[in-house]
Amino acid sequence: MTNDPILHAIDTTVGALRSRANAHWVVAFSGGKDSTAALKILLAAYRRSGLQTLNLTVIYCDTGVENPILDLYVKSVLDDLGGELAELGPSFETRILRAPVQDRFFVRIIGRGYPPPTNSFRWCTTGLRIRPVSRFIETQDPKNTVVVLGLRRSESQQRDRTLNGAAEGPWQKQREGNKDYDLFLPILDLSVAEVWDATFWLSKPRSINATMLQDLYRDASGECPVIRAPQSPPCASGRFGCWTCTVVRQDRSAKKLIEAGYSELKPYFEFRSWLSEIRNDPAMRWPKRRNGAAGMGPFTLDARREILERLNQLEAVTRTEILDSEERGTIAGLWRLDHYPRLSFQVF
Fold it and tell me: What is the pLDDT of residues 232-280, one digit of tens each?
C-alpha cells in the first residue's frame, strides 16, 4: 500500500467505486478547493477502477446569493465540464440545483419578513443547500445513491469530533427525516497542502483551472459545503459562501477580496452590512411574532419595501439580476397576504 496520501485516497476511492459499481454517484461540487480535489480524486479512481461505466452526476447548489466571483467561476467551469464528462462516460452529467421559489433567500426576507440568519436562527443552510440536494436524491434512488463530499479532518476541532464520532473511515450516513443515503468522503484525511497538490497534479477534469482557483484563494480561503455531514458545523468565517451571510460578524473573505482588487464586490458588501445593521432594529420589525408570542416578529411591510428598493438599486449598480420575475411575483403575493394576517399565519 502506498504511503502517498493522494495515491492512498485514490486507491480507497477505487475500492469504493468497485464495491458500489451500480450505485448513482453524486459529487457535491461547490467550486472550492476541497470539492475540486474530491472530484479529481474520484475521476482518477474511476479511470483506474477498470469499470466500463458509472452513473455519475456532478451537482452545484445555486443559492442565488453565492459570492459573485466564485459563482461566476463555478458556472463557467460547469459549462465546460458537462461536455468533458460526456466524453469520459455516457452516463456522466452536471446539474445545477435551486431551492423552490418560496424557500429562496430574498423571498423569505422580503416576502415573508424573515430576519437575516444568525447562529441562533440559521434558516438558510437547510432551505438553500440541504433540501435541494435531498429533493434531487429523492427523485433518484436514495438507497442506491452515494453522495461524494469534500469534507476533511483537521479543518476544526469541532469537525474532527463530529467526523471521528460518526465514522472510522470515509463512509458515513446522511439522514433526512426518516430516510438516509450514503456519504463518501475521499479527502477525509488530506491536509490543505495535499488538497492543493491533488488539485494541481491530477489532470482531469481539464475544465478546472487550478491556477485561477488558487488566485481566488490568495486572499480568501475556504468554501461553503453543498451539504453537511451529520452534525458538522456550518460554513463560517474565512470561507466562500453567500454574499448575504449575516451569520458571521464580518465577511472577511469578501473584505479581503475587495482589498485584493475585486472592487465589484463592494456594493454587495455594503448591502450585506446594512442588512445586518437593521436586523434587530425594533422599528423595522413587528412587535410580536406571527403566532402572537412575545418578541420581535417579521420585518414590517415598510421595512420589506425598503429592502426591496435597496436591492433594486444594487441590481442597477452591479448590472446583475438578483431577483427574477418569479421571485418578484411570489413576493408581491406574500405582501398581499400580510395585509390580511389571518390568511398569512406562520411561525418562524
Answer: 444 433 456 788 887 776 667 777 788 878 899 999 999 999 999 999 8
Residue 164 has pLDDT above 70, yes or no: no
**DSSP-assigned letters across all residues of 131-144:** HHHHHHHHTS-GGG
> From edge to edge, which strands make up the β-sheet containing 171-176?
92-97, 55-61, 24-28, 145-148, 179-184, 171-176
Q: Which residues pair with 94 in a beta bridge?
A: 58
| 151 falls within a domain | yes
- For the chain, give the mean pLDDT: 85
Cα–Cα distances (Å) from 275 to 36, 70, 109, 297, 336, in that order, read 32, 22, 10, 16, 23
Whole-model pTM?
A: 0.84
In a domain, 284, yes or no: no
Question: 135 lies in a domain?
Answer: yes
CATH number of the domain enclosing 58: 3.40.50.620
Residues 6+ apart with CB under 8 A from 58: 26, 27, 29, 39, 78, 81, 85, 92, 93, 94, 95
Which cell goes with 239?
470561507
Cis check for the bond before 115: say yes or no (omega within 30 of 0): no
Q: Are 297 and 290 in contact (CB under 8 A)?
A: yes
Share of the chain above pLDDT 70, in %: 85
Count of domains forming the chain = 1
Does 285 map to a domain?
no
